[in-house]
Design goal:
Blueprint: E1 7-11, E2 14-21, E3 26-30, H1 41-47, E4 52-56, H2 73-87, E5 92-97, H3 99-110, E6 115-121, H4 132-136, H5 142-149, H6 152-167, H7 174-183, H8 189-202, E7 203-204, E8 207-208, H9 213-216, E9 224-229, H10 239-246, E10 251-255, H11 262-265, H12 267-280
Helix pairs in contact: 2-3, 5-8
C-alpha cells in the first residue's frame, strides 16, 4: 500500500488537509465522526489506477484545522464543494461513511449537478437510531467528562489492558481499532470541541436529529450503492432497507459479519464492489 501524501489548502481562512491521487473520473471519499482520510488509505491504491481519488480530512478531524464554528452537514458539504472548485473538479462519485454518508446526501441535495453516483457506507441520516455513546455526547457536561476519559493516563491504562487481553488471545476487530484511533485523537481541547460540535449538529439525546428522508422524495437520486455491515452496533443495518424503500432503484450490499466499518472489515470485497458499481452505473 502506497503511503498517503496529504496536501493542504486554505478554505474559509483555515487549512484543510487532503489527498489527491491518480487521474480519470473523480471519486471523493468522506469519512465519519472521529475518522480521517487514513481510513480510506487502502482504497487509494485500489482505485487510483484509473480514477482520480480525492480524500479530505473534514474540518475538525485529522490534520485539518479545528476552528470554532459551523459543523453542520451543509457547512461540510459547502467546504467539499469549495475543495472541488479549488481542484478544478466538476463532477464526482461520492463515497461517504457514517457522518460522511449524511454529508454526501446533503452535497447531492445542494449540488445535484455535480454528482455522478452516490455510495453510502453505514450511513447516518437514514433513521433515528444511533449508539448510546454518541447520544451521550449531547448531554450537559460531556466536554468535561470527555476531557477526563481522553486524558493521557486513562488512555495509557486502557491501552495496557488491551495489550494484556491480546496476549491471551483477544483480537480487536476493525470497529475497535478505528474507534480507538479516533478516540485517541481527542487529547486536546480543540479536537474535543470539534467532535462535540460535529456530533451535536446531527444527534440529540433521542438519536439522529437529521433525516435524509425529508429530502429524498423531492429529488431524483443518482445511481446509488448502499453498503452495510450486518453486525453494525453504531447504526443498525436495517436502515439500509429503509433507504431502499425510499430509493427503490438503489443497490444494497450487506457484508455479513462486518461492523460499522465494512470497508475496513473486508477491504478487498469493498474495493471490488465499488469498482463494479462505478463500471456499471
Amino acid at each position: 500500500m502506497i503511503p498517503l501524501a496529504p496536501q493542504t489548502v486554505v478554505l474559509h481562512g483555515h487549512e484543510l488537509s487532503y489527498v489527491d491521487s491518480g487521474s480519470g473520473p473523480v471519486v471523493l471519499f468522506i469519512h465519519g465522526i472521529l475518522g480521517s482520510q487514513r481510513q480510506w488509505s487502502h482504497l487509494v491504491d485500489e482505485v487510483d489506477d484509473d480514477h482520480r481519488v480525492v480524500v479530505p480530512d473534514l474540518f475538525g478531524h485529522g490534520d485539518s484545522a479545528k476552528p470554532t464554528g459551523d459543523y453542520s452537514l451543509g457547512s461540510h458539504a459547502a467546504t467539499l464543494r469549495d475543495l472541488l472548485d479549488h481542484l478544478g473538479v466538476e463532477r464526482v462519485t461520492l463515497v461517504g461513511h457514517s457522518l460522511g454518508g449524511g454529508i454526501a446526501m446533503q452535497f447531492y441535495y445542494l449540488f445535484p449537478e455535480r454528482v455522478d453516483r452516490l455510495v453510502l457506507v453505514a450511513s447516518g441520516g437514514l433513521g433515528r437510531e444511533v449508539n448510546l455513546v454518541l447520544r451521550s455526547a449531547t448531554l450537559p457536561g460531556a466536554e468535561q467528562v470527555l476531557g477526563v476519559i481522553a486524558s493521557g493516563p486513562v488512555l495509557e491504562r486502557v491501552e495496557a489492558l488491551g495489550r494484556g487481553a491480546q496476549k491471551v488471545g483477544w483480537k480487536p476487530g476493525a470497529d475497535i481499532g478505528a474507534i480507538w484511533r479516533g478516540f485517541t485523537s481527542l487529547g486536546d481541547r480543540e479536537s474535543r470541541r470539534a467532535f462535540l460540535a460535529t456530533t451535536r449538529a446531527v444527534i440529540d439525546i433521542g438519536g439522529q436529529s437529521i433525516s435524509a428522508h425529508d429530502h429524498l422524495a423531492g429529488v431524483t437520486p443518482p445511481p446509488t450503492l448502499i453498503v452495510w455491515g450486518s453486525k453494525d452496533r453504531m447504526i443498525p443495518a436495517w436502515h439500509a432497507l429503509s433507504a431502499q424503500r425510499a430509493l427503490p432503484q438503489c443497490r444494497v450490499e450487506l457484508f455479513e459479519g462486518a461492523g460499522h466499518f465494512p470497508h475496513l472489515d473486508d477491504p478487498d470485497r469493498f474495493a471490488q464492489v465499488l469498482r463494479d458499481f462505478m463500471a456499471e452505473a
